[in-house]
Amino acid sequence: MRTAIRLLASVKPGRYLEAGNPTGLTGLFTHEAPRSALLYVYSSTLDKLKAFPESSAYRQSVEAITRHRLRIVEAIKPEGYEEWAGRAAKEIAAHPEVFNTLPGRGKNYQQSLHDGRKFILTTPQREEDERVEEWDGEKVSDQLEGPRTTAESKMEESLMKVNEGETKENIQLEPEPSLEISQLNDLETQIGAGLIEEVIQVAEGELLLIDTMVQSRVWEELEEKASPGQWDYFARDTHTPGTQEPPNK
After folding, report:
1. What is the pLDDT, as a whole number, of residue 174?
2. Model confidence at 85, in pLDDT bands (50, 70, 90)?
3. Distance between CA 11 and CA 4 in Å, rounded?
4. How confident is the model at residue 232 (pLDDT cuts 50, 70, 90)?
5. What is the mean pLDDT of residues 222-246?
6. What region, left, alpha or beta, does residue 81 occupy, with left being phi > 0 and alpha being psi -120 to 50 degrees?
7. How many Å separate Cα 117 from the centre of its chain?
8. 3-class secondary structure for the chain?
9. pLDDT tens for residues 95-154?
10. Residue 162 has pLDDT above 60, yes or no
């Protein structure tokens, strides 16, 4: 049913899904790189879970399902993945000043390490339309012609310098090949949690929830102990009879 919804919502059915197309679910659009997104989110989740003690029930349950789904995602690779990985490794090795920058310091690419996996994060370059920008009322000062002072010259030199994470060349890292529709269907079937975009949303929500759980230190004992019998009503099979036998035919 979900597969039919996605295919009916696609404008151009074919071998690959087009990013940004409707999925058939309101407000949810086709993700441009679901495999790499899940690899990054799941690896980040496993990294953050290390803040919990190993005895934490929350860590054990989330870690188990995250590792299970991560193995599924890693096992399904797009066509030409190995060749792409080889080209990407050569490009990164040839330009370490571009790709080996820490988060927040590179403009186009940032290096990130989660759960022993290395990721290169890409900052999308969006073209801004000056026609939609509102004027903030600031008066633009006129630029004087003629020789500059020492301070002005140093300022211009600093603006002309290449920032860390950039080069004079326009380095573009080739994106990971896309999964085919059949591979996406297989991935969604094995995970069993709806469309892959829904899986990504849940994974991102869990990643944000971990910060709240760590801040609340949920693995610690309650400051005020529960009253005796407070939770008896919610115990399993307390208020429900056993399984009924099938009626006699």
Report:
1. 80
2. confident
3. 13
4. confident
5. 71
6. alpha
7. 14
8. CHHHHHHHHCCCCCCCCCCCCECCCCCCECCCCHHHHHHHHHHHHHHHHHHCCCCCHHHHHHHHHHHHHHHHHHHCCCCCHHHHHHHHHHHHHHCHHHHCCCCCCCCCEEEEEECCEEEEEECCCCCCCHHHCCCCCCCCCCCCCCCCCHHHHHHHHHHHCCCCCCCCCCCCCCCCCCCCHHHHHHHHHHHCCCCHHHHHHHHHHHHHHHHHHHHHCCCCCCCCCCCCCCCHHHCCCCCCCCCCCCCCC
9. 777 766 555 444 566 666 676 676 666 665 556 656 666 666 666 555 556 666 777 777
10. no
Amino acid at 100: N
Q: How far apart are CA 239 and CA 249, in angstroms?
A: 29
- For residue 105, the model assigns a pLDDT of 47
Q: What is the mean pLDDT of the chain?
A: 77
Q: Which residue has the tokens 């789904």?
A: 69
- The whole-number pLDDT of residue 229 equals 82
Q: Which two three-digit tokens encode residue 27?
A: 């407000």
Residue found by looking up tokens 């009916």 in the block: 8
Alpha-carbon distances of 244 from 220, 233, 239, 241, rounded to whole Å: 40, 22, 14, 8
Q: What is the CA radius of gyration of the chain?
A: 26
Count CB neighbours of 53 within 10 A: 9
Give the model's pLDDT for residue 135: 66
The amino acid at residue 91 is E
Let me know the angle formed at the C-alpha of 245 by 243 and 247, rounded to the nearest 5 degrees. 140
Q: In angstroms, rounded to a whole number, what is the distance separating the alpha carbons of residues 164 and 4?
A: 47
* Residue 115 φ/ψ region, left for φ over 0, alpha for ψ in the -120 to 50 degree band, beta for the rest: left
At 221, the amino acid letter reads E
